[in-house]
Each structure stands twice: as C-alpha cells, then as structure tokens.
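Blackboard transcription, Thursday session:
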Amino acid sequence: MLKKTMLVIEDDQSIQDILKLTLHTANFEVLQAFNGAQAQNLLQAAKVDLIILDLGLPDIDGAELLVQLRKTTAVPVLVLTARTEINDKLTLFSNGADDYITKPFEEAELVARVMAIMKRTYNVTGYGRGSYQSGALVINLEQQVVYKDNQELHLTKNEYALLSSLLQNPQVVMDYATLIKNVWGAQTLPTQNETLRVTTANLRRKLGTYQDEQYIGTDIGVGYRWKLDTQMTEV
Amino acid sequence: MVKDARTWLDEINASATKRGRLKIFLGYAAGVGKTYRMLEEGHALLEAGVDVVIGYIETHQRVETQALVAGFEVVTGTDHQYRETVITELSVKNIIVRQPDVVIIDELAHTNSSSWNRKRYQDIEEILSSGISVYTALNVQHLESLHELIKLITNVDVKETVPDSFITQADNLELIDIEPRVLLNRLEAGKIYRKLQAQLAAQNFFKLAHLTQLREIALQQVTRQVSQHNSKNGQQTRHFLVAISESPNAINAIHWAYRQAQAFDAPWTAVYVNTHEHYLPTDTLKANLKVVQELGGEVAMLTGASVSDALIQYMQEIKISNLVIGKHTQRNWQGIFQQNIEGKIMNAIPFVDIQIIPGITQPTTWQARWLPIRNKLKQIQMTDFVVAGTFLMLATVVNLMLHSLVAENSIKIMVYFSAVVLISRFTKGYVAGIISSLVSVALFDYLFVQPVFSLKIAQSYYGIVFVIMIVTTNIISGLTSKLTAQMKYSVKEAKRSAILSDLSTTLIGLNEPQAMSQKLADVLSEYFGHHVQIYYSRNQSVVSHHSQTQEFVLDANNHEIIQWVWHHNQAAGNGTETLSGRKLFYLPISFKQRPLAVLVVNGREFNYRERLELGIFLFPLALALDNYYLEQEKHRIALDNANNQLKSDLLRSISHDLRTPITSIIASTDHLLTRDNLTADDQLLLKNINKESNWLVQMIENILTITKISQGKVNLKRTPEVLEDVIFAAEEKFKWINPGFKMQFKVPDQLIWLDIDNNLFQQVLINLFDNAQKHGDDSQVVNVLVRPHLTTVDIVIQNYGAHFSEQQMQQLGRIQSELNSQKLDKKRGLGIGLFLCQTIIHLHHGQLTFSNWQAGPQVIITLPIKEPSDA
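(Written on the board underneath:)
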C-alpha cells in the first residue's frame, strides 16, 4: 500500500522534528511547511492526504489559513492549538477543521487522532450496512438494533441515531452542530443544543461503562467522541 | 404580592451563595399588622413553590392571623422551665436540621429565657449563616440607636434592643404603615386583643401624638436605609443648603434641613449672607449658628450686597441639590422693596429644589423696634461729636462774618448745608449727621432769624424753611454717609479680594505643603497683625511667620494640643471652650471634615468678624492641601497599577514563550519512551522529565489565567452544560497527563445543568484532581460525588489521604489573603492552583470549602444550578 503523506504546517523547528519522527514511526510520509506561504506552495506541488495545522504562524493566522485552504482543497485538517489560545473551538469546525488536538499533546493521542481521521476519510466504503462491534456493544444497522453483552438495549429513535452517528466516526470529535444535523435533520431549534445534551446523557446511562470507561467522551464546549475503536463484523 | 414573593425568590436564586437573605417587616407600634403581612407573603412564597416554614410566631390570638398560620409547617421549638411556666423558645437546631428555604421568625427583639444565644437576632444570625433565609418582624422602638429618642417621647425604657448593624445588613426592609388613628380605632373596636392592648398601655403608646412621632421615625429609618443602599450603588448624593437670617423663625428652617439631610444621608450647610459692613451678629443669629453646629451642619458666612446674588454665586460654586428658605407669611410694607429671593434663584439655577418653610411673624414690640436704634447710637464715638462740633462752629463763625456784609439769609442756609454734608462725610454712620442738621437749624434760628437770640420766629415762612432745611440736610447726610461707607467697604473688600486671589493662585502654583503653609502664614500675619504658625503635618512640621514685634511663646504641651486639635478637628486655646486659659489659639484647617493642618495664633483674641474672615483665608490652603494629597494618592495608585500591569504582562509573555519548548520536550520524551532498547533507569528518567514538563504546563495555564483575571480581562463565557459532561471531560483530559488516575464517579440520576465558563471550570477540576491525586494514597483513587440541593449543587472531591488538620483547614480558608501577602505554600503549585480555583468558583457565584470525610480529606465545590431554558 502506498504511504500516505502528511503536511505539517508549524513554525517551531523542534516541534516539526518531533512530529516528523512520530509520523514516520507511524508509517507516514511527512512534508514540512514553516509558514502559510510555504504550505500553499507545497499543496500545489504535492499530493497531500492530511494536513496538521498549527494556529500560531509567523505570516498568517492559522484560523485564517484554514479558511483559505478550504477554498481550494478538501484534504482533512487536524488543528494544533494551545488550550487557552482558542476560546471558540466551534468556529474551527464550521471553518472546515476535521479535528483538533491541544498542545502539549501525547504522541499516542496524536497518532490515534490522525489514524481516526484517515480511516473516516479514506475507508468510507467500510461503513454502511452491516454490523459493528465496539466494546461490549454490537449494533446492527440493518435491523436498527443494539445489543450490550448480547442483551438488546431499548433506545429511542433519537438515541439510536446519535449512537450510530458517533459509532461510525470512532475516536474523532463530532461537534454539536454535526451531531444535531445527523440526529434531527434540518429542523433545528434554538434549544436543540440542550436537547442533544439530554439525549446524550440518557444514552450514556443506558450504555453504561466498558472496562470502567464511558463509551462517549466529552470535548467540553465542542462536541462528543466515541472513545473506543469500532470494528465491522461479518454478518 | 405574588410579584413581591417572586422577586424575593429570584433574588434567593441569584445569590445562591451560602448565606441566607434577611427580610425585616418594620412597624412603628405593636398591632400595625407586621405578623399578618409576613404570613401573607410567606403564603405567596409557598404558592411559588418555595419551602417556607414557621420558626416562631406570635398571633396575639388574632383570628385573621391565626387563620394565616394554617398551611405552614411549624418547626418545633424547645421548652424551657421559667419560674412556674414553661416557655417555648425558637429552636435554631431544629430549623437548621430541617433546612427550609425560608423560615418565618416573629419578634426579632425578643430576649431568650434560656438558650445558647441571649438574643433572638443572634439566633437569626446563626440561621442566616447556615444558608436559610429569614423573614422577621420588628417595632422601631427596639432599634438601639433610637432607644434614647423613644424614651424621651414615650417615657418608657425599652429593654429589648437590636443593634442597628443587624438592621442595616437586611436585604429587604418593608415598612408596615397604617394611620395612627386607624390603629387606635382598631384597638378600641376589637376587645379580643387584650394582650396587645396591655402592651400598648404599658408602653404609653395610647396617645395619638406619640404614635404619630413613632411613625415618623419608622418612616425615616426606612428612607435612610433605602438611600444608604442607593448611595452605595453610586447614586448621586444630595447636599442641602439652608439660608438663615437673624429671625428666630430660622430655627424651623434649620431643623427642617437637618431632618431632610438625615433622611437622605446627605451633608448640609447653613448659610448666612451679611449685607452690612460693620456687622455685629445678633444673639439670635449666634444661637441659630450654634444649633447648626450642634446638629452637625457646616456654616458658611457670605458677604454681599444682595442676598440672592451671594446665594446664587455660592450655590454655583458648591453643588447644592436642595435649598431651604425660611420665610415670613405676613408681608409688611417693606415687602414692596424686597426682592423675591426664590424666584431669582430659580431663574439662575434651574435644577435646585427649593423648599420654603413658613415662619410666624411675631408682633413687634417697642423694644424690638428700639433695639436697632440703640445699636446705632452705640456706634457713635466721641470723635464724631468733636468733628460735628468743629464743623458747626466753623459754619457759625463764617455766617457771623457774612452777616455783617449781607443780610440775605439764604446764603447762611447754604453754609450750614455744607457743614452738615462735611460732617456726614467725616463721621461714622448717619446719627451725627442727623443731630448736626437739627443743631444747625437751631443755631440758624437763634442767631440769624428775627427775633435774634431766641428760638422764636416772627415770620411764619421761616417755619417752612426750617422743615425743608431739616429734611434736606437729613437726606444729604444719609446719602453722604452711605456713600462713604460703601467706599470704605469696597476699598476693604477690594483689598481682601486682591489678597485672596493672590493667595489662591500662589497656592496652586506651589506644589509642596511647606511652601503653601508658609505663604498663608505670611499673608495672615500681614493681614491680622498676629503672629502665626502652621503645622501642616502631624509630625510636628511647622512653618511660621516671625514678626519682629511679637515673641512667639510656645505653650507647654504645645505638641499634645496640636495632636488633640488634629484628632478632634476642633479649635482649642484662647477664646475657645477647650483649654481657654492658653495664650495661643489653635484652629484646625480642614476640608470635607478631614483635618489637613493646624493653625496656631499668638495675639489678641479674634472678634467674630475676624474669625469669619480667617475662615475665608484658610479655605484656599485647605483646598490646595487636599488637592495635593489627592494628587499624591492618585500618583501612587497609578504607579502601582503600572507596576502590576508590567508584572502581569511579563508573566503572560514568559508563559506564552515557555509553552512551545515544553510542548516539544513532552513530545520528544514521549517518542523516546516508545523505544524498546531503553534501560529501566532511562525509562524512569524520561518519565520524570515527562511528568515534570506536564506539571509545568499546568502551572503556566494557571499563571496565564490568573494574570488575565487580575487584569480584569476575564469575561466569563458562560454556556449551559450538563454537570456529568463537565466532569467526564476533565477526567479524560487529566488522564492524558496522569494515566494512573482513577476516578470513582457515579452518574447522578438527576440531570444537572450548570451555567459555566468551560475553559475556566475545566482548569478548576483539573487542579483539584491533581491535588487530590498528589496528596492521596498510592491507589490514586479519587471519589467524585454530586449532591444536588434545591438551587445549588455540591461537587465533592474526596481522596484517601491524611485528614486535613484544623490548622490546614484554616490555612486553606486563608489562601486568598496569603497569596496577596505572597506567603505561598512551599509545596509548589498548591497555593497558586487553589487560589485560582477559588477565584474562578467565586466568579461563578459559588463556594469552595475544605473538610474531611471518614477516609480522608475532601473539597466541596458549591455552584448554583441552572434551569434549562426548555424546562
């Protein structure tokens, strides 16, 4: 299989170095850009499968660069941010980011996020109809039933929609807006955000824990994330 | 009423901090309906879903009141044996155990027969601090500060008093007000309220007059508290000015202004405008001014030709909101010439409230009429008679010489005219002029009119001539003396104005207290001829003007006297009521009641006018000194702010710069840790680097947030969040840094919403998790419990470490102050982290408390619960 190529846009040399090392170890090709202009040039010259974008760049604000990139490319973008620098992470999503990771990050976390985005973006055909398994759960998309430890879970329509939406995008943050769209469709109300929280809370109570861990993770102020990996099972 | 209760409820929710809210129903006598009203509002709260109970109620066997008690849960009191009878007292313990939202407790002034606390208000204090709100009732005569006053009115010594501070801290004060007549009727009509009646009788409250006075006092009390609340909220303050005259009626206006100023908690000033040159204050005026000073008002003496002009000028300089004028209701013939003062003032200063207090014109006695004339006569001096005699003699000599030349008498009349004019010019006042005019007519008649050497007149037309002569000389004399007086007056005024304006401009130019004081000392010595010293600071700094003629003999204990004057802001020494035996006169120079310097004068006693003048001279120095100290203070604050700003900016930029290299260190060690060929030692070292770096990151985040908060840059970005989401998110984040961390958390059955700033609140939880893990046992297990209450929720974080000692808990309670005094806990990070937590929780109107549970220490975050908008 052809190696996937990452474009890392980051002005700090030592972070560039460590990212390159990490991504090489995870079997990716790495291109390095130290500012916005270099990034634009590299994107025109080479085929890139994923962009890792730092928000603090010398020549252009990273958030601004993200908007520009989205005009010309659909390549997924993972944003690197400092925790206090960014107050409104939601705008990142509406500007087209696929996920974000806060500095300082753990190597394992970074690799997990990258893999999750790659899987979601390039293995789309893997999902669709059939059965999926995650932790103690088995979900049958065709029959629209969920089993936990082989016992059927009784979920409401919205809870089911939320579960399948999260489950099909494991380990990636799903922001509130996307989840609301997936569950309730276009007819969104101002209080929908609160309804989503209630639905999630109820779903969480029904799912329980797996090896002392919650299934659904919270990225506070941004959205929810399916914490475990998901496997397709043969029907 | 329901609305009242709702507002109350909202307020309880809004300030969901620990302390309960206090509402006092204030009445002016027993029987006005406080208990009834309190129960009525309690019912409204019950309907709104608030948990209201009765802690203690006194219904006085009134049917209406008793009916209202139904529907409330009554918390059982404790019984005490008191002599023969058993008395049921309020049980603080039972109420606190019961934990209602609001408890109704009647008779705030009650003294307990046998309880832990001697007074009921102490019980209530305890209940309030346990987070329960209290409704209570009080009669105004039980207020400590009014005790004496009410004793005076009713002759009854009220034993049960409540300190004023307890009343002022009330969140609401509602006045229960009915007409005293209605109250009396009520009592007469209903024979059932025997106990009440007996009470009233005992308190000598039968009388309508007493009730009316008590009612007025109660009204004032409420007004004062409202206005104090308002002025605390930065509302514009009032300043009352009362214009007074020599009239004894002025005292009414003074009292009126005083009461108004009291009611509004405003300063007040009495002003007298002096329109005469040689003004001797009457005893009435002195008495009036004394009353003003006794009532705590300022006195201002103005000089000017017109009362209204002087007032307008004064009011334009000093911001006056209300003017009080005393006025005679009856107008006499003089009224035709009197200007309408209030009209003029209203035209000039449209935004001033003018109140006119009618006075009663007293019948004028002959003594009263004679008094001014006697005063005038007193002013005549011997020199005036010498001058008058000389001129009249000269005129007679000239006329005798003329008589031999011309027989025409009209010329002689002109000579006497001239003499009278000259006399008027060179004597004080017009009395000498009038007497001279009469004497000159007599002389003329005696010497030159047929029959000569007799006062008889042969031709009748001379009678007319004499009358004309008297009238004309009088008019001329009057005009001349007035003109002279005005000239002298304006010369002196001009001189004083020149000195004053020079003084003011010079003082502004000098920006140093010593030079300022020296300038004033020079001016005063020159103007009054006294020797003066000015102490411009408490530490004996002194400037003085040494004149050659007088020796300045310092009093023994000079320093102590100055300290006394400074401390009491009161004059002392020669001519005063304090230490009047001293040679020196000590006068504080103060501005807005704050002493800024002390003037010491060696010389003869000042007369009344000179004292007033002295005040005028001292004012520019007071102003200049006040201004100087104010500037100094501003400068100091500005410097402090600049320093703080610099510190914060430095911290911020350092923190930002540190973040990137630390990120790279963490990522590098992470990567190295994935290698297989590491020795155990390598692994340990790398893990330590990694751990310490993560700790640094946490520290930097804390510092950044603190600098932001201390610069006031933090606006909470509140969003509604579900409590469990918040806790899970923090747990996950914390686990990335500390993989060994184990959180025991049971999702609560109830879905709890908070209105919080996510970023800041995550920081709180992470800091608390970090502390709990660091100081826990090896299992690294941390319990998180959620305890919802009606309007608040407790988030309890427990670990299995050593219990907090008493001392530690005290220390933790003091973190805020310790941080300010830079006595940070030596255990790194603990101080700043907890300080940050406390600050953030307070911003969210919550509380952070430290205590112990069975197996270890615990931290409790208490936060207000948010109602979701679609609920």
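Lecturer's comment: The first helix of chain B runs from residue 2 to 14.
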